[in-house]
Amino acid sequence: MALTQKTVLIVYAHQSLGSFNEAVRDEATKELSKQGYRVIVSDLYAMNFKASATKSDIIGDLKNSELFQYGEETMHAWREGCLSEDIMAEQRKVKEAELIIFQFPLYWFSVPAIMKGWMDRVLTQGFAFSLEKMYNNGIFKDKKAMLSFTTGAIESMFRPDGINGDINVTLWPLQNGTLHFCGFQVLAPQIFWSPAHCPAEVRTAMLKQWRERLKGLLAEKCLTFAPCEWFGLSFEKGFLLQPEVKEEQKSNAYGITTGHHLGKLLPPDNQTKRECRCCWTVCGWMDGLWSRR
After folding, report:
1. In contact, 254 and 265? CB cutoff 8 Å
2. Which CATH superfamily hosts domain 7-224?
3. Nearest to 151 by CA among 41, 24, 42, 291
4. What is the tens place of the pLDDT at every residue in 108-163?
């Protein structure tokens, strides 16, 4: 019996042909296809994907026409098969994909509006998450996701002592609050620092390093997050860290994660490099692919 071909979805957001983001996307498409993956690209600008979440995302009657609540209505519409076709088409791609790569230029410390709209509209309640199924118990816990993006700023500007602040803090809402919240196992991000201000040979080296990483991408260990089991998972308990876990963490010099810092020092590179549990250190790609700080 033939094995089912595995699928990678690239959600791509850049307006221009010939951009560095396009080159990064194309390298991923070529390399992953060479490995036998079926690669689907959602080119959001080319698709003219609608960014705003509105009533038009629901086909037919609303559950509560007097007070429109987008989350409730789209959850109901998803259950009834009454979401707009553009949303349902993207949800079918997500269901098929083993890995989703979000490829974009960093805008205002986040994703472009059109990609944010994709997240708002496609990752509907019920389809992508519920109060019972979130984080490491989430709906997409058997899938992987990662951010791959370019910056306008140079790397030093995003260090803890740089003018923009720690890139790990910047990435926490996207990687924990969106991807991990939906259950995805989150791979370390691929960051292309300031390609617009680099010589051509540096951009070529960046693409070469990306190709090398892609060869073993799906075998990589993922970023670590605080598991749901560490929290009191009810409104009565406030979804707060369990007292016994707090006690266990007292002697640690660092917080648990970038977001769960417990008033301590942030664990270094918590959102940019995987943690090596064998020696409790932070590991990254060597040979220039990821630099140790």
Report:
1. yes
2. Flavodoxin domain (3.40.50.360)
3. 24
4. 999 999 999 999 999 999 999 998 999 999 999 999 999 999 999 999 999 999 99
Q: Which amino acid is at 194?
A: S
Question: How far is it, in rounded angstroms, from Cα 41 to Cα 21?
Answer: 13
Pair 128, 139: CB distance under 8 Å? yes
The whole-angstrom separation of Cα 164 and Cα 154 is 10
pLDDT digits (tens, 9 = 90+) for 248-269: 999 999 999 999 999 999 999 9
Indicate the angle between helix axes 85-96 and 113-122, nearest 10 degrees.
80
Residue 251's Cα: distance from chain center in Å?
31
> pTM for this one?
0.90
Concatenating the DSSP letter of every residue in 28-87 gives HHHHHHHTT-EEEEEETTTTT---S--GGGB-S--S-SSS--HHHHHHHHHHHT-B-HHH
Phi, psi of 201 (to 5 degrees): -65, -30
